[in-house]
Known about the structure:
Elements: E1 2-10, H1 14-23, E2 29-32, H2 41-44, E3 49-50, H3 59-69, H4 76-95, E4 123-124, H5 130-143, E5 148-151, E6 154-161, H6 162-165, E7 178-179, E8 192-201, E9 207-217, H7 238-246, E10 250-251, E11 256-263, H8 275-279, E12 283-285, H9 305-319, E13 324-327, H10 333-339, H11 341-349, E14 359-368, E15 371-373, E16 382-383, E17 385-387, E18 392-393, H12 405-428, H13 451-467, E19 471-472, H14 474-497, H15 502-523, E20 532-533, H16 541-544, E21 548-550
Parallel strand pairs: 1-2, 1-9, 2-5, 8-16, 9-17, 15-18, 19-20
Antiparallel strand pairs: 3-4, 6-8, 7-21, 8-9, 10-15, 10-21, 11-14, 12-13, 13-14
Helix pairs in contact: 1-5, 1-12, 3-4, 4-12, 7-15, 13-14, 13-15, 14-15
Amino acid sequence: MEQHTDFLIIGSGISGLSFALKVARLGRVTLVTKKRRLDSATNLAQGGIAAVLSPEDSFAAHIADTLNAGAGLCHEDVVRMVVETGPERVRELMDLGVDFQRTAPAGALLDLGREGGHSARRIAHAFDRTGKSIEESLLKKAAADPAITILENHLAVDLLIASKAQGEATPPSEAASKEFPLERPAGPPFRDRCLGAYVLDRESGKVESWTAKVTVLCTGGAGKVYLYTTNPDIATGDGIAMAYRAGARIANLEFVQFHPTCLYHPKVKNFLISEAVRGEGGRLIDRRGRAFMTKYDPRGDLATRDTVARAIDLEMKASGDDCVFLDISQQPAEFLKKRFPTIYQTCLGLGIDITREPIPVVPAAHYMCGGVLTDLMGRTDLENLYALGETACTGLHGANRLASNSLLEAVVFAHQAWQQCQADWPGLADWQPPPIRPWLADRAEPIDEAVLISHNWDQLRRLMWNYVGIVRSEKRLNLIREQLGPLLAEVDRHYRDYLLTADLVELRNIALVAQLIVHCALSRKESRGLHYISDYPLPDDRNWKKDTIISRI
């Protein structure tokens, strides 16, 4: 069955919803989300959104902090644009009903937090549930807009590409690393045109063809490629995988950010302890109570996430301990209960009173700094295909994301993409898609052994955790590249032999993203930002102060 909409948005996080609310002024909007509409990484974001919102702060300081964290790979024009337009986007969120914490119940000033890598207090937050507050406010507005339709329990399978729809399939080739062009030309001339996407209805099991004048990928990151992650279960790299298969360029996948402080407890998975805890005075200690961060960085516990994650990894390897501890018990109990209500209640429910004792923590895969290559307007290499949020590589984060810049990037680039669509709309309004091939299942059969999927999934994630983690080596990377070959072939056979299920689609995507991460990591012969490889422990500005680009064509 073929469906049509003006704007097809794949993903229901902050970037997709922000974009949807704006382009709904132009036409019909269909927003596809894999599970429930609240299931997104945005909903789990604790810390907040970074922006210059105080007279004690400055654009120059925020720009400098971002560039410093990015270890030489941030694109300064992008950083400047995001930082300088950020405050206006934060005020838009407030107008939409996001209730950021203020210095007094009815105060005019925001209660700004500070996180690692920031030289000033600039984190607007809703205590430690900022993401949930943003997501609920945006969803409420979207649900009330008659131009917006939200399809829950729908999963995009692949993009519809003009050349393939017209019978001219683009032949795949080996991924190749290329030097990053200085001006990131993702605009015209485009490689091909995106016409929409094949979408699986999880309840009926049918695959529908959705055509659209504009398609937007905002599917979040790919944390589930690793065994331990702070990400929700939906973070399977779908947008990155679909864009790569369609011929769009992908950049910088070697830069996987591991959140330094994920709660270590057998009863809880993917619960992170916000960066803001260290911003409010939390100290990392070993099991004997000894603080250790000043051994690794003069900023101590306020160092950037890459430094802190590596320090914890080294401490754990040296001691043989399963975790380290984050201690903020020196702060008044009432302050902690008010500032971190979610963290306090969650830990207390597990028998950990953060007002009296330290929190056991370990690093976990958290954020993809790389993704689908875009320009300043969020456009990819494919005409009328945009990528927003964690799915995209905009040039803001470089080799390491500065804490709380991600939500800022999402709203700023949603606005940029809306402006571009508004400018292009006179030429798009009357466009009609060409005939689309319906999805053909051929002789595919229902998969009768779910263990085939779960086994591949578990094997893949364990390999990635053990071989492509916080500290890497060429030996381990080459070993996993060899081991991924048979595994990927088996996943491809499942995809061709069996009727599609959501689990099979996600496994296919995460297997491809794992392969691309390994390729990027092997390509970079230096250590920079989040990519630390023991064979090349120092950065090499002469040869590697550039992004890693991979493409299948």
